[in-house]
Amino acid sequence: MRVVRFVSRYFFDFLNSQDFWEMRFASSLAGSDSNNSIQLTNLEMSRIHEIGLPYASSQIEMGKSLSSKSYTKQFTVPGNHYGDVHCIKILAGDSKIALSGSRDKTICVYDLSMLGTKENCVVNTNSDHNGWIWTIDQEDNNFSKIVSGSWDSFINFYELGRGDLEKVAELPVHSAILCTRYETNMLLYGTYSKYVAGYDTRSGKVEFKLKHHNKPVLSIAASPNYIWSSGEDYALTCYDRRAKKLLKRIRMERISSSISFTEPYLWVAGYDGYIKCFNNEMKIVSKFETGHSQPILDMAHNMGATATACKDGGSRCFLQTFILKHGIAFLLIIQLPVLTTRTVYLW
Description:
By secondary structure, the protein is mainly beta. It contains 6 helices and 26 strands. The strands form 7 sheets. The protein has a 4-stranded antiparallel β-sheet with strand order 2-3-4-5, with no helix packed on it. Helix 3 packs parallel to helix 5.
C-alpha cells in the first residue's frame, strides 16, 4: 500500500474507500456456497461498523481459509472400547497423547504421533474404575497430572508416564462423578448428588461444597474469580469465589449440558441445539444455531474453535473470529460426521 499511493493515487484512494470495503465485506460474508456463507443480525452489523470493515473482512477471510478442507485431516482411531465413549481429552503440551473414557469402565491412551501410520495408536488401556467413566481432565500448567471421574463414585489421580497412567491416589466421593475442572492444586467436580465441590490436592481436603442445584450437575467451568455450573434442573449458576456466595442463578429454557469459559465469555451448549455466549454479568451476548437436530451432549471450546457432539450422532466444529477482542462472534460451520459412538475420531 505504501508503494501503490505513489504509482496510482486513484487506485490507492479506491482501496481505502468505503465502497471498496463494503463490496469486499459483502463478498466475505457470501462465500462460495450456502454452507460457507454467514448471516449477521442487526446488532452484529452495528458492531462490525464500530470496529471497521477492513479488520472485520480480514478476520472473516482468515477464518474461512482455516476452515478449508485442505487444512482438515480426519483420522479414525479403532480403540479397545466395546462400550460407548463418553469423554475424550487431548492433552496439552508436547506429549502428543489423547485419552478416552468409556462405559466399558476403561481409559484408552493414544499416541497421536502414530496417526497416519500402520501402527496401533492405542498404547495402553487402564481399567482402575468399576463404573462408567464420565470425565477425564488434566491439571492446568502441569501436563503430567490427570484425573478421571466415574459412576463408581471415585475420582482417580494419575501421573502420565511414557504412554501409561500410573495411579497415585483416589478420592471416594460417595456419589457418581459427572464432570470435573482441574485447576492448579484444586479439583472442582460435579456430582449426581446435586452439588459442586472443591478438593485441594495439596492438603487432601474438600474445601467447599456448593449446593445450588436441585438435580445432578452436568458441567463446570471456572475462572480465578467465579465458578459456573449447569444441571439437569435447567439451572445455570455463577458462584463468586471472592465473596463466597452465589452471585446469580438463571433458569434456562432447556438443559445446559456443557459449559466452557474463555476470558471474558462463558460458552453454553444445551439441549436446544444452540450455543449461547454470556458476559460477566450473565447476560447473553450472542446465540448461535448449530444445525443439530437433537440435544448437544458435549462441547469443547478454546480461543480458536468450538466443537460439539450431539445425540443425533453428529459432531460439528466451529471456527470463531475476534470474539475475544471485540465482543463479536462468527461461527463458520464445518460438518464432521461421527459414524459410531465406539470409535474415536480426530481432526
